[in-house]
Specification:
Layout (H helix, E strand, L loop, with lengths): L1 H14 L1 E2 L10 H18 L8 H16 L4 H13 L7 E3 L2 H4 L2 E3 L1 E2 L2 E8 L2 E8 L11 E5 L2 E2 H8 L9 H10 L3 E3 L2 E8 L5 E7 L8 E2 L8 E6 L3 E6 L6 H13 L4 E5 L8 H8 L7 E2 L3 E5 L3 H9 L12 H14 L4 E3 L5 E2 L12 E5 L6 H8 L6 E5 L9 E6 L3 E6 L2 E3 L15 E2 L4 H5 L4 H12 L1
Length: 466
């Protein structure tokens, strides 16, 4: 009995103790099973990358979760299990979102008198900002080396990373650090820190709203579009959001001034996407091409009878090479449908560039990209891929786009699965990898400590050499 109690204490310390907030328990056991099954069903039928997952594990996980979800003590525990199940699909446009009431109860790095922001730097959980009053106690560059008695990396691998839904490894690593301490209000952590001077210290912190508004270093104010001049008559334009169509008119209004430059930097590092067409309208001004090539798109084509034939005849790849062309086509469709790998390719359309040549601005251009250049901003890069005057500098992008299907889950939660696969026009994949830079520049710990924008510096150096 004593051993069991010690084991329970050990587990509670590892995952954090929820002490101050009573978490709601409103979802019945039957609803919990229904919600799990609904997500499983929608993914099986609609998830475009189902052919890439371990089907045997997917099914066995579902079977074991039928019992596990019924044993969850509250709604939060239930949704966390759904999120963990969802994360096995490894897609950034496939998620389980808790209802707003629960999301509002979550805090990330707020502990009453303390607040800090974490970034993944060289695989370490590094504090890059704190509330202003704690900047001396917890200097920028401090690393969290232990969480609840466990080395941070080990804690992340066990309690954080399995819940992250994303398509790319680098984003999974980033989120595992930035959301390391995301938890319900009242969760207690025992944290061990290492300062940049190697001194170590420990704190016991309980998540609680921090009321201090000032952070250090202060966040840079960012508009929908930012413009400035850089050394060498370089026009710098930061396109920060493709959700708001107003950015197109802002760009066009600023274009006469931009055209006074000899070179151009387009910064997409803060752009998490929105509407792809909004970005393309801007790109029309930056190319000589009269026809723009965007991504190719695919979705699973599921015809049950073909799947039945594939299963009933136990078709194998070599069977699709037999007989006439018509027979091979039939066997191939049945075989691929059985494997959830038969796709409908959407008609491919290019976009006409109707901007007058005299209004365009085509000069040596750097596209600054980063890990959080995502979705519609990545579509912008796909269209710009064949532009020889453009060079991508920075880090691989988010690596996720597509068309999600949204559906309701019990208790007010929302699920979504990605139904569309996008590639370069020639079929090259970027989902799961990110759009890769031509020149990779990664921000180091020293860059954070010295507040240096190494990618921007590289872009300026590159263009001025040109």
């Amino acid at each position: 009995m004593k051993k069991k109690i010690l084991l329970l204490i050990s587990i509670l310390l590892s995952v954090g103790l929820v002490a101050q907030t009573e978490l709601p328990n409103t979802i019945s056991k039957s609803e919990k099973v229904y919600g799990l099954s609904k997500f499983w069903k929608e993914a099986n039928y609609n998830f475009v990358y189902l052919n890439k997952i371990d089907k045997e594990k997917w099914e066995s996980d579902y079977i074991s979760l039928i019992q596990e979800v019924q044993e969850t003590k509250n709604d939060y525990e239930y949704y966390r299990l759904l999120q963990k199940f969802c994360a096995t699909l490894k897609d950034g446009h496939t998620n389980v979102w808790m209802p707003k009431s629960l999301r509002d109860n979550l805090l990330n790095g707020e502990f009453g008198n303390y607040r800090f922001f974490l970034k993944n730097i060289d695989g370490k959980a590094i504090i890059t900002r704190t509330n202003l009053s704690k900047k001396k106690e917890i200097p920028i560059g401090t690393e969290i080396i232990e969480v609840n008695g466990m080395p941070t990396k080990e804690y992340i691998n066990q309690y954080v990373k399995p819940y992250i839904s994303t398509s790319t490894n680098h984003i999974r690593e980033n989120f595992s650090v930035s959301e390391l301490l995301k938890s319900p209000k009242g969760t207690t952590y025992h944290l061990k820190f290492r300062k940049p001077n190697s001194n170590e210290f420990s704190l016991k912190l309980t998540s609680k709203k921090n009321s201090e508004k000032e952070v250090y270093p202060a966040f840079e104010k960012s508009e929908l579009m930012d413009f400035k001049w850089l050394k060498g008559k370089i026009a710098y334009v930061s396109l920060n959001d493709f959700n708001n169509p107003k950015i197109d008119s802002l760009f066009v209004a600023k274009l006469p001034e931009i055209k006074k430059g000899k070179k151009l930097i387009i910064d997409l590092r803060k752009n998490m996407g929105g509407n792809s067409q909004i970005g393309i309208e801007i790109l029309k001004y930056l190319t000589n091409d009269n026809e723009l090539q965007g991504s190719a798109s695919f979705s699973r084509l599921h015809i049950p009878t073909y799947k039945a034939w594939g299963e009933n005849f136990n078709l194998k790849a070599e069977d699709t090479l037999q007989g006439s062309e018509e027979n091979r086509k039939f066997l191939s469709q049945a075989f691929l449908t059985k494997k959830d790998s038969y796709f409908y390719k959407f008609p491919y359309y290019t976009t006409e560039n109707n901007i007058k040549k005299t209004e365009r601005f085509v000069v040596p251009t750097v596209l600054l990209i980063g890990n959080y250049t995502a979705s519609a901003a990545e579509d912008f890069l796909i269209v710009a891929d064949n532009q020889k005057h453009m060079t991508k500098i920075g880090e691989p992008t988010y690596g996720s786009t597509g068309q999600p299907l949204l559906f309701a889950l019990p208790g007010g939660a929302t699920g979504r699965v990605c139904t569309k696969k996008d590639t370069y026009p020639d079929g090259r994949e970027f989902v799961g990898y990110g759009v890769l830079p031509d020149i990779e520049v990664k921000k180091s710990l020293n860059d954070y400590l010295e507040n240096k924008d190494c990618a921007l510096e590289k872009a300026i150096e590159y263009l001025n050499k040109k």
